[in-house]
Write a structure and sequence with these properties.
- The protein has helices spanning 3-6, 20-28, 44-60, 71-80, 100-108, 136-148, 159-168, 192-200, 222-236, 253-259, 288-296, 301-320, and strands spanning 10-14, 33-39, 65-67, 83-89, 110-114, 151-153, 174-178, 204-207, 241-243.
- With 322 residues, it is α/β, with parallel strands linked by helices.
- The protein starts with a helix and ends with a helix.
Length: 322
């Protein structure tokens, strides 16, 4: 058995189109579990619909998938040769203005919620707008997320809101999918200071490979992805770093038009241009190539196992309580 096959492998963020071919590719890629986005711009009712739909799909594909509510579920998925689906949001918009919805979604199985998606909402501000920081309601939301065991994600969140959220949370928070601005300046990338700050306060960093944020863009390879991970590890150490690919597998241009909009009807927030994942890891099924690239970079076995999934497993346990 290869190291990849033997390891717990957790992708900290996938926003693929939830269909049979993607689920089969997750299994082909040897994923033990993945944080799977089920809400971005949707409100409460539409998000409930998305959750109901993905749970039906998990049941339909129960020979290769299982729902994750606890870290024990992730370990069981590994033992059973399945991929555990962690329900996650990339925006707290679905909480609307009702603090009770936080617990309601936790009861449905949601385990990770990003506070803002690029722009401002009732909680705080995203990374593409002038950042006024965390709102009073936002502080209450974080306290409730801590109480019910939902991890706070700050990947697309602005610097001021992120710093205040890190300080406000009593449990570890994360950047589930980010890259260092030390390798490429971009509003979505995090500075060395921001990366150190979250790590120094017990937080977690999932390194992404989304091409517009990588140093070499669409020319990047899986080895460039590992280089970005090493950059972060050299800043904060290997115990609080994992990976979060941000795979958008199965989607077309219409999806990116929808995902990059902003407040104001038909207002476009950003334009990513051509999206082409790094050579060697263009599909979820190629995830074993990530482990091979780590080996080429001279990583030891313990470091590889941590970053592939053991670190995510530990921090999820700290937040979820099981």
């Amino acid at each position: 058995m290869s190291l990849h096959q033997d390891s717990i492998v957790i992708d900290g963020l996938i926003i693929a189109k939830w269909e049979s071919s993607v689920f089969e590719d997750m299994r082909k890629g040897g994923l033990t579990a993945a944080n799977c986005t089920v809400s971005v711009w949707e409100g409460f009712a539409d998000t409930v619909h998305n959750i109901a739909e993905i749970k039906q799909k998990i049941r339909k594909h129960d020979e290769i998938l299982s729902l994750v509510r606890t870290t024990a579920d992730i370990r069981q998925a590994k033992a059973d040769g399945k991929t555990g689906i962690i329900l996650g949001f990339q925006n707290a918009h679905a909480f609307e203005d009702n603090i009770g919805y936080v617990e309601a979604f936790a009861d449905m199985g949601v385990r990770v919620v990003q506070l803002c998606y690029n722009t401002q909402n009732l909680i705080g501000t995203g990374c593409y707008e002038r950042d006024g920081g965390l709102s009073g309601f936002g502080r209450e939301v974080i306290a409730e997320m801590n109480r019910v065991g939902i991890m706070v994600d700050l990947s697309h969140v602005g610097g001021n809101t992120s710093k205040e959220a890190i300080l406000e949370s009593k449990k570890p928070v994360c950047y589930s999918h980010c890259l260092p601005s030390g390798l490429k300046e971009h509003p979505r990338n995090k500075s060395d200071e921001e990366l150190k700050f979250i790590a120094d306060h017990g937080g977690f960093i999932g390194v992404t490979m989304f091409p517009p944020f990588l140093k070499r863009g669409i020319e990047a390879t899986v080895d460039d992805y590992v280089e970005a991970m090493d950059y972060v590890i050299n800043l904060v150490g290997e115990d609080c770093v994992g990976f979060g690919t941000d795979f958008t597998q199965g989607y077309d241009k219409g999806f990116f038009d929808w995902i990059t909009h902003d407040k104001g009807r038909y207002r476009r927030l950003t334009n990513f241009g051509t999206i082409l994942n790094p050579e060697g890891i263009r599909t979820i099924g190629e995830t074993p190539n990530l482990t091979a690239a780590m080996e080429r970079a001279g990583w030891g076995e313990a470091k590889m196992r941590k970053v592939l999934g053991e670190n995510w497993l530990r921090v999820f346990g700290e937040v979820w309580g099981a």
